[in-house]
Amino acid sequence: MHMIERGELTSCKYTKILLLLLFVSGLCAGCLGQDPLESRVDKLVRNLGNEDQEIAYASAYALIEIGEPSVDSLIKYLKDEDSQVRSIAAFSLGRIGNPRASKPLIETLNDLESEVRMNSAEALGELKAAEAVDPLIELLDHDNDEVRGKVVFALGAIGDPKAADPLIELFGDRELGDSAAIAVGNLGDGKAVEKLIRLLDSKDSDIRINSICALRYIRDPASIPFIIKLLKDKSSEVRKEAAFALSFFKESGEIAQMEQPLINALGDDRSEVQEAAARSLGRIGSKESIPSLEGLLQDKNKNLQSAAIKALGEIGDPEAVDSLVATLEDEDWLVRENIVNSLVEIGDSRAIDPLISLLGDENHKVRKSAADGLGKFGDRRAVEPLLKALETEREREVRQSEVLALGELGGQQAIEGLSRISTDMDEYRFVRTTAEGSLEKLKGGEAGNASSPS
What is the CATH number of the domain that holds 104? Predict the structure, then answer.
């Protein structure tokens, strides 16, 4: 059974169906003299079994919106003879979130239909029903991987440490191992750390990977030396996971342990490991890694090159500005765009002139990023170049960014330019509207703090 998400019901077709259902239910209430809300709930619950699943799920989402008054009826229909009704009732109860539904949902974990078990398990996770932990653990032996997957989710969401060992037993499962690892991490069980560290020596690389994954969520500093050791694992996938996991440890003492091993990993013989190390060095703000990351700016592997660019931006040290500016000559427009973003993050004024030059770049996305960046820098030296760029720019999105930048920079020259654009009937309407908004902001005195005089 396809689970219809709420977003799928926002089209005109589904909205009309829902409105029709509510209208009909309202008429019935009037005819029978029932309480309107009670009658509407009754009508919607009975529609859960409609052959047209669009109508069935439209009814479910209407019941979810009604909330508490729907709970008793939905609980009753958990025992309906139609498995579709039971399944969607369980789905709805989880999203309403009333704890009164926990016990009935636990009973439906034994339903003969896998779809009902799946939705009941997921609903219990949504409810964070602690009393469901033992029955859910028993269901980990179910022969349907989809059911077990929902059980793993539920146990992770509930967060009872007693689920740690049963979930860890799944780490070698190719279908559920990664989900189980995330669930164990979500438990935040410090007692599980010792066992997870022992599993880092497993002969099964999947178990090693999933143990690292769980440890990165728990974030116990005692695990750092053991994860660092795996940066030299024989499996590149394990090395990649270890490099990624280290970025989750952010305390200064933790960074001191792992900074150099991550820098060393930039020399790994597999680009995916190098990339993970570069991204982690960026996340932990490693200034020591700047020279090594700069050495990757000309790498032929575009993913690795982009990771180095982004990392330098995250580190935010002006030391990297010159090497980033030099790389703006790269023929790949995405590389140039990434460099613009990193230069803006660093915030050094040496980037102003290079960004002004990029207003004439051959790629419109680079021109847009340059205009956005100039607005963020707040340096009025960019006003005249932005106005000049607007004389020839044809892309609407770029023009809008240039107008927004002028609004951020302010000054008399910017105001005059925005005034012309806001009244130019040949201008894109959306750009005119943006210019009007920028003018209102400037005239309201909100942009008087730009870094250079007009």
Answer: 1.25.10.10
